[in-house]
Amino acid sequence: MAAIELTGLTKDYPGGVRALDSLELTIADGEFFALLGPSGCGKTTILRTVAGLEQATAGTVAIGGADVTRLPPGRRDVAMVFQDYALFPHMTVTDNVAYPLRIRRVPTAERRAKAAETAGQLGLTKQLDRRPGQLSGGQQQRVALARAMACHPKVFLFDEPLSNLDARMRLEARTFLKRLQRELAVTTVFVTHDQAEALALADRIAVLSDGRVRQVGTPTEVYRRPANTFVASFIGSTPMNLLAGTVTADGHVQVGDARLPAPAAAVFLPGGTPVVYGIRPEYVRLVAGPAADAVSGEITVVENLGSSQLVTLEGPAGTVQAVIPEDTDARPGTTAHASPRPDRVLLYDPDDDGTLL
Ligand code: ATP
């Protein structure tokens, strides 16, 4: 069992930077877990603290039920893959992969065989005698993975594992990584600032800001029901529309001059309650003519997304974006009417840090 439990984890760096603030996080055994958040939110610090490369200022790190907070990295049974892969440039693939076994004083023949076997599992058999400089980015990444796998650690830690690959390689490596993790079933924590990557790969995601966890959930949960406006605007290929509105006496929401449908919960809010009206652009459609349940505005921008178009409307309700089919006619400068899909509307509390109502 190699669940990871972070309890009250705080990390202060010299100079008064609080990188982690009483963080609580439990990662299940065998889980593929993403740490997602904007630059500087503390993702790498969490990873380094789990690895033992940073000491926590307060709080504890437990792996497989054992408190490892004060253990050095070498005694935690974790393997970390760094963003730049940190391969030894003068060593061959075999020697790079065998390196951690050498540190553990595994006899030469045994470690070379083990390294060749692991590298083979990752499709590197033909590259065993090459040096990192003679490999593609994707191959270098696999060498780094093989090196991490060679010691059969309890936990894998990946810091932005795909960031050095070009867009196409990234997709390939993503699928590869997901399959590998399924096969190995080793608890894996990976850091990314790319929400699409987190949604595609992870069993569960922790969304972070300012050293705090803002939501933990499956990709579906954080996409469908973001717990606050921060998560709502961070997850999704286009951010959720967040419009200032007021609950009406009959349980709708007044947004500008439109009276929009609201979730059933709105009925329990007193008329006049200010809310943030959340609807993803994917769940907004353009309708003909002005309608009570649609916001009207002028189309200011139309972006071609390939299979769809992202349309931006400016009107009395503010700025609203809609994803519409690629064959729908939408022209900048014309008036359009945008209607939200009622069952996908979420209301947030503007007075409580944008928490889901
Ligand atoms: P990025 O996505 O940019 O890598 P991150 O989410 O991984 O960011 P961290 O690298 O964990 O963030 O940094 C968290 C905060 O701690 C940031 O404000 C950063 O400037 C600060 N920080 C990180 N390392 C140090 C250090 N060695 N000394 C001082 N401050 C640091």
Automatic annotation (TrEMBL):
Pfam families: ABC_tran (PF00005), TOBE_2 (PF08402). Residues 326-357 are annotated as: Disordered. Residues 4-235 form the ABC transporter domain. Keywords: ATP-binding, Cell membrane, Membrane, Nucleotide-binding, Translocase, Transport. It comes from the Bacteria. One of its GO terms (molecular function) is ATP binding. InterPro entries: AAA+_ATPase, ABC_transporter-like_ATP-bd, ABC_transporter-like_CS, ABC_transpr_MalK/UgpC-like, Mo/tungstate-bd_C_term_dom, NA-bd_OB-fold, P-loop_NTPase, Transp-assoc_OB_typ2. The keyword S-adenosyl-L-methionine does not apply. This is ABC transporter ATP-binding protein. The lineage of its organism: Bacteria, Bacillati, Actinomycetota, Actinomycetes, Kitasatosporales.
